[in-house]
Amino acid sequence: MGWAHSFPMSEGVRSGREWTRERLASLPWAATEPDTVDAVVLTVSELITNAHVHAHSDAHLVLTWDGDCLHVSVHDEDPTLPRPRRAEPGDVGGRGVAIVQELADEWGMRCQRHGKSVTACFRPAETAAE
C-alpha cells in the first residue's frame, strides 16, 4: 500500500523537484489532484533551498506515502531549527517556512543526532474522502 523513496540532494533543487514529480506520478491521486502535486513540489523546493542556504549543507530528501499522507522530509546537517520570519515586500527570501506552513496539512521539525529534519504532510482529498 505505501512506499518510501530517498534521494540525496547534492544535485540541487531542480533535480529534487523533477525527482519528486516522477515519484508522485506513481500515486493514484496524482493525476486528479494537480494542485496537491504542485504544493508538494513547491514544498520540496523550499525545504531543499533552506537546507542549502541556511544549513550550508547538502540535503537528503525522503518521500513516504502511507496511504493517507504523503510525507516530505528533508534532512540537513545543521541542528538549528528554522524559524518563521516576517519578510518585507521587497525581500527576495525569508518566506520558505511560511510557504510550507500554508501548503502542508501538517508540518514539523526535529533535531537529530547529525542535524535536523523538517517534515510536511499532505493529505490528498481523494484519500481523505475514503
TrEMBL record:
User: Does Transmembrane appear among the keywords?
Assistant: no
The keyword Kinase is assigned to this record: yes
Q: Where is the composition biased (Basic and acidic residues)?
A: 75-89
Domain Histidine kinase/HSP90-like ATPase residues, every copy: 30-121
Task: Spell out the CDD domains in the cross-references.
Answer: HATPase_RsbW-like
Q: Give me the ranges of the annotated region Disordered.
A: 75-94
State the organism named in the record: Streptomyces lomondensis
Mind telling me what this protein is named? Histidine kinase/HSP90-like ATPase domain-containing protein
> InterPro entries under this entry?
Anti-sigma-factor_SerPK (IPR050267), HATPase_C_sf (IPR036890), HATPase_dom (IPR003594)
- List UniProt keywords, sorted A-Z: Kinase, Serine/threonine-protein kinase, Transferase
**Gene3D superfamilies the UniProt entry points to:** Histidine kinase-like ATPase, C-terminal domain
Top-level taxon of the source organism: Bacteria
